[in-house]
């Protein structure tokens, strides 16, 4: 009698184990997703709570009650630097990035508005204290604090931190040295920075040239043009580029108009008469090539003109803002006062800081 061949039967427990493993994987995945969501929600809540409870907030609220302007409402969310660091709950880098985006937006908004950058210095200080390793913050803030915000002292203070954090970065020394010489009349300190920058192995050739020839002075626009071109090369943010390009165009306008006026005087001395047209100034060899290429249009889009009676050269764009006294403290204070007056005229409410020219926003934030 032939025995029946038993058919293969899989272990009864195999199917149950496979099903159990699948359930365990799904449970584990769902749990991880839930934990991640809870962690992100907790982080957002902690950051928001810390921002609302920082020590400098009360002074900002007090200011907002006194002056109901956009600037004051923006200040509601600006803590003191010390409070921001202490209350960052270990998430300093994350908070620094959030404030950095807000800083960029703040500058762009006010550059296209009334050009009153009251809190810009304080915002830059906050970001750089929370995360000093954010190297792109320093050239952006320092350059615009000086050229647009009329606060070169704040710019140098920020650059001190940059140089301390990045001692081998030639550009930070260059910006600080230029600012000291050109805006703060500190020739000795500025030249020392340029010499240090030139000694760094990756320093740009222009830095070595500046250090060797001591070319940076307050009396002419050449060094300013060079500085602004370098700043534009390193800047990507649209509003900042727009601001720097406007400064560069105006500085070039000043240089060209001055050169054309010198050419007219030279022509008169050589020929004993005033030139009959701008074209006649070609003979002096003083007219810049770019002016000839543009057909005597200025960098602002206006047109140069010659007064045939006096030989004076002018432009339909008016008078350049740039001048040898443009960067003096008196001129900076005058422009700050004008910006505050413009804001008051718009809002109809007097600014609490109108009498405090060129003061530190961080001090205002911490005032009782």
What does this 3D model show about the protein?
The structure is a single chain. The protein is mostly helical. Helix content is 64%, strand content 2%. It contains 16 helices and 2 strands. The chain has a two-stranded antiparallel ribbon. Strand 1 and strand 2 form a beta hairpin. It is elongated, with a radius of gyration of 31 Å. Mean pLDDT is 77; it is low at 53-58 and 349-368.
Shape: elongated
Quaternary structure classification = single chain
Got a strand count? 2
Structural class by sheet pairing and helices: mainly alpha
Largest sheet: 2 strands, antiparallel
The average pLDDT value, as a whole number, equals 77
Q: How are the strands of the biggest sheet laid out side by side?
A: 1-2
Write a brief structural summary:
With 368 residues, the chain is mainly α. Helix content is 64%, strand content 2%. The chain has helices at residues 12-53, 57-66, 70-75, 81-86, 92-111, 120-130, 137-147, 152-165, 170-184, 187-199, 205-213, 222-234, 238-271, 289-293, 329-347, 361-366; strands spanning 304-306, 313-315.
Comma- or semicolon-separated keywords:
disordered C terminus; single chain; elongated; 368 residues; two-stranded antiparallel sheet; mainly alpha
Could you give the topology of this structure?
Elements: H1 12-53, H2 57-66, H3 70-75, H4 81-86, H5 92-111, H6 120-130, H7 137-147, H8 152-165, H9 170-184, H10 187-199, H11 205-213, H12 222-234, H13 238-271, H14 289-293, E1 304-306, E2 313-315, H15 329-347, H16 361-366
Antiparallel strand pairs: 1-2
Helix pairs in contact: 5-6, 5-13, 6-7, 6-8, 7-8, 7-9, 8-9, 9-10, 10-11, 12-13
């Amino acid at each position: 009698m032939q025995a029946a061949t038993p058919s293969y039967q899989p272990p009864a427990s195999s199917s149950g184990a496979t099903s159990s493993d699948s359930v365990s994987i799904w449970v584990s995945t769902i749990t991880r997703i839930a934990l991640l969501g809870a962690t992100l929600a907790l982080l957002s809540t902690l950051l928001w709570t810390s921002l609302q409870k920082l020590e400098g907030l009360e002074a900002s609220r007090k200011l907002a009650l006194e002056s109901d302007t956009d600037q004051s409402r923006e200040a509601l969310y600006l803590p003191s630097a010390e409070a921001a660091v202490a209350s960052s709950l270990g998430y300093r880098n994350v908070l620094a990035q959030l404030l950095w985006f807000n800083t960029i937006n703040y500058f762009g908004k006010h550059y296209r508005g009334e050009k009153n950058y009251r809190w810009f210095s304080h915002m830059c200080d906050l970001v750089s204290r929370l995360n000093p390793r954010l190297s792109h913050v320093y050239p952006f803030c320092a350059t615009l604090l000086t050229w647009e915000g009329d606060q070169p002292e704040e710019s140098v203070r920020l650059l001190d931190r940059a140089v301390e954090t990045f001692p081998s970065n030639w550009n930070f020394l260059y910006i600080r040295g230029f600012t000291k010489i050109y805006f703060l009349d500190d020739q000795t300190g500025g030249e020392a920075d340029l010499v240090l920058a030139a000694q760094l192995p990756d320093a740009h050739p222009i830095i070595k040239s500046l250090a060797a020839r001591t070319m940076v002075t307050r009396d002419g626009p050449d060094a300013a043009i060079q500085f602004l071109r370098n700043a534009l090369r390193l800047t990507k943010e649209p509003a900042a580029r727009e601001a720097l390009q406007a400064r560069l165009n105006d500085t070039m306008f000043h240089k060209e108009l001055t050169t054309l006026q010198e050419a007219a005087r030279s022509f008169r001395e050589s020929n004993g008469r005033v030139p009959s047209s701008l074209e006649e100034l070609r003979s002096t060899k003083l007219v810049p090539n770019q002016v000839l290429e543009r057909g005597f249009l200025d960098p602002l889009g206006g047109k140069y003109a010659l007064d045939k009676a006096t030989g004076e050269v002018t432009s339909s764009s008016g008078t350049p803002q740039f001048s040898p006294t443009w960067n003096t403290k008196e001129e900076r204070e005058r422009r700050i006062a004008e910006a505050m007056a413009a804001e008051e005229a718009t809002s109809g409410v007097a600014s609490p800081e109108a009498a405090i020219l060129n003061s530190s926003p961080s001090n205002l934030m911490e005032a009782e």
